[in-house]
C-alpha cells in the first residue's frame, strides 16, 4: 500500500504530530502537525469530519510523554466511510473511518484551507 503523504502537497521534508484532538463526541478528529521540524517548523492540521470509528494503538508506552511524534506514514483511505485512514507514528497509530477530510496550512483560523476528497485511493483537491 503506497503512502499518501505526497498527496498533502507539503513537499519532500518530514513531519511531526504534536497533538490529536477528538471533538463532537468523536465525530471530528484533528491532528496538529509540523512540517520541516528542523527548519521553518510550519504548522498544518489534518481534519477528519463525520467520523464513525476511531481505533487507537500506542506502540511505545515509554515515549507517550514526548511532545512530538515522528510521522512515519499516512494512508488516506476513502471518504464517505468506505475505507479508514491510517496515520502511523513512532509512538502511536490511529485508524479513522470518516466522511470527509481537509488539510489546513497556517498558524490560526485565517490559514489557507484545502479540502481533499478521496476516491479509490486517489485524492482530488477542490477549493
Structure description:
- This protein is mostly beta strands.
- It has no helices and ten strands.
- It has a ten-stranded antiparallel β-sheet, with no helix packed on it.
Give a quick precis of the structure.
The protein is an all-beta fold and 127 residues long. It contains no helices and 10 strands.
Helix percentage range? under 10%
Rg: 14 Å
Structural class: mainly beta
Q: What fraction strand?
A: over 45%
Q: What topology, given as strand order, has the largest sheet?
A: 4-7-6-5-1-2-3-8-9-10
Which oligomeric state applies?
single chain
Number of beta strands: 10
List the helices and strands and how they pair.
Layout: E1 15-23, E2 28-35, E3 42-49, E4 53-58, E5 69-75, E6 85-89, E7 92-97, E8 100-105, E9 112-119, E10 122-126
Antiparallel strand pairs: 1-2, 1-5, 2-3, 3-8, 4-7, 5-6, 6-7, 8-9, 9-10
Brief descriptors of the model:
single chain; 127 residues; mainly beta; 10-stranded antiparallel sheet; disordered C terminus
